[in-house]
Amino acid sequence: MQLYFTPGTDCEDNIIEQINNAKKIDIAVYSITNEKIVDALINAKDRGAKIRVITDRLQSKGKYSLVSKLIDAGITVKTNVKHKIMYHKFAIFDGKNIENGSYNWTESASKSNAENCTFFQQSSNKVFTNQFNYLWNLY
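^ that's the sequence the OP posted. Answer follows.
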């Protein structure tokens, strides 16, 4: 397990490393405004990685949101339709590596906020994968 705190780029850097090495990426994150992470996702999609993103409906329409950039690149994005907000912040890389914590995938999270992210192996009960698939099918 690895744990990082912000401000600083440790969360961002480690998320990008996971993206760069994964063939399948499932993301449930409240807000996406981090250009470096979005560019890594687009590059991963271009090299053939399968990517699914769930994000918050209102955040996805925000002034600084980069969700439309993901959609324009051909990445499938779903937003919450059954919950008031979608406030999860986790990603699953190749079904086994998990990133989880308070870290939003935003510029502010790296530059000025006090947030955290943890990287660890998913347990055999696949609780993160099960939750992601539940939300994906719900939305």
